[in-house]
Amino acid sequence: MSDIKTQLVVLGAGPGGYSAAFRAADMGIDTVIVDARETLGGVCLNVGCIPSKALLHVAKVIQEAKHLSSHGVTFGEPTFDLDKIRAWKDSVVGQLTKGLAGMSKMRKVKHVQGYGKFTGANTLEVEGSDGKKSTITFDNAIIAAGSEPVNLPFIPHDDERVIDSTGALEMKDIPEKMLVLGGGIIGLEMGTVYHALGSKIDVVEFLDQLMPAADKDIVKVYMKTIKDKFNTMLETKVTAVEAKKDGLYVTFEGKNAPDKPVRYDRVLVAVGRKPNGSLVAAEKAGVKVDERGFIKVDKQMRTNVQNIFAIGDLVGQPMLAHKAVHEGHVAAEVIAGKKHYFDPKCIPSVAYTEPEVAWVGLTEKEAKEQGVSFETASFPWAASGRAIASAATDGLTKLIFEKDSGRVIGGAIIGTNAGEMLGEIGLAIEMGADAEDVALTIHAHPTLNESIGLAAEIFEGSITDMP
Ligand code: FAD
């Protein structure tokens, strides 16, 4: 690998990094993107958002096929060919990473494979997988090195039966009994997949609610839908995991703790992700990294060093791909001389569980904390024609309005396809729409989206009939 001189180097080729690199190249900036992986796409495409959704698709189809028996259509018990399931997931990932490689080539973005570390405010050293080193000299840099799963000190992570999300996506086998340690989105998504494929799933969460960032009323509906799928232990923590020949013996403590250690075939540790800010020798470039590994940036994604920007998981929560993408665009545009800022009114969150749980803007919890005067209106899916016709009545659409203005400031949906529906609420928030705007928007009938218009009508007090 020979030394390179470029206008912009992007360190990390996840959704933040490749979006920044492509936008910069589109604006005529000579751009190099560096990633330790062979393929572009980062965590999201390779071991995150996309492979998990490919497997969740499989899980959804299995569940729907089972439900059909109550509608008069019965399929046989599903049989699983793990190699083929894995191949399906890998083909989805491959299709997208190949697409990214093509887009990169088309834009003449140079992809350097290797591990990058700063050696100064204008130099990055990259070590290739063959051990050879090269230096990239740059005018500007964007750090987009993402995050990695958090390990816990009292857990034998070196035992191959203890897995993180990447291990879970490898699908080496289907364990008979698996513990999901952590009741956040990633753990619950993977739990959904393994349950559909036949595993018995226990979920343990230290807090008093799964998906702690979402509002209680929404999660309550989710809890109802999963009661036969997962054994959930809230307000309970794991204090030890002992690896024995016949399984992993887990000791619990807390409100719902079993009184003796429980044996599992696998333990999936999904207790959050830590930023990779400390792993790129940012200090050599003068960039400040906090003790947790986050890099502080301003609204233009600029670090404390004028020519170095940072985006994505390593600049803070929420650690989500779409946030990284938008931050990447801002950083590239600022480097190109545009006066752009990352200042969204809201960033959507979606758990692609079965059913999905999605929220955007302020939650009730946040509105209370911020002293915002608000009202809510909810439409239960049990009253939706489309939901009834689709056997999807376990759902709820909630809108949160600023009390005086009636403006939409938040919303949440639990139910099938909630993530797809959430965009309308996000747009309403960004556009400053009020309840009347949403209520007067004619939604097609019968759709699940109608529930958004109907929730607004409830707030308006103008609801006349049910679909
Ligand atoms: P990343 O995607 O983390 O990419 C960083 C890249 O930098 C990596 O490829 C890494 O190899 C590279 N890198 C790091 N350090 C160096 C170095 N020193 N030298 C060279 N390369 C380096 N988010 C969603 O929005 N929706 C979802 O549905 C979703 N599902 C997820 C499911 C799972 C199982 C996981 C784990 C995550 C999921 N996420 C999801 C989160 C999402 O993947 C991240 O928020 C997103 O990938 C962050 O993008 P990023 O650009 O910050 O960096």
Automatic annotation (TrEMBL):
PROSITE patterns hit by this protein: PYRIDINE_REDOX_1
Keyword line: Disulfide bond, FAD, Flavoprotein, NAD, Oxidoreductase, Redox-active center
Record InterPro entries: Class-I_Pyr_Nuc-Dis_Oxidored, FAD/NAD-bd_sf, FAD/NAD-binding_dom, FAD/NAD-linked_Rdtase_dimer_sf, Lipoamide_DH, Pyr_nuc-diS_OxRdtase, Pyr_nucl-diS_OxRdtase_dimer, Pyr_OxRdtase_I_AS
GO-annotated molecular function: dihydrolipoyl dehydrogenase (NADH) activity
Enzyme Commission number(s) from the entry: 1.8.1.4
Every FAD/NAD(P)-binding domain range: 7-328
Keyword Methyltransferase appears in the UniProt entry: no
Cofactor comment: Binds 1 FAD per subunit.
Enzyme class: oxidoreductase
Gene3D superfamilies reported for this sequence: 3.30.390.30, FAD/NAD(P)-binding domain
Domain Pyridine nucleotide-disulphide oxidoreductase dimerisation, chain residue ranges per copy: 347-455
Catalytic activity: N(6)-[(R)-dihydrolipoyl]-L-lysyl-[protein] + NAD(+) = N(6)-[(R)-lipoyl]-L-lysyl-[protein] + NADH + H(+)
Note: The active site is a redox-active disulfide bond.
Record family assignment: Belongs to the class-I pyridine nucleotide-disulfide oxidoreductase family.
Name listed for the protein in its UniProt record: Dihydrolipoyl dehydrogenase
Organism, as annotated: Glaciecola siphonariae
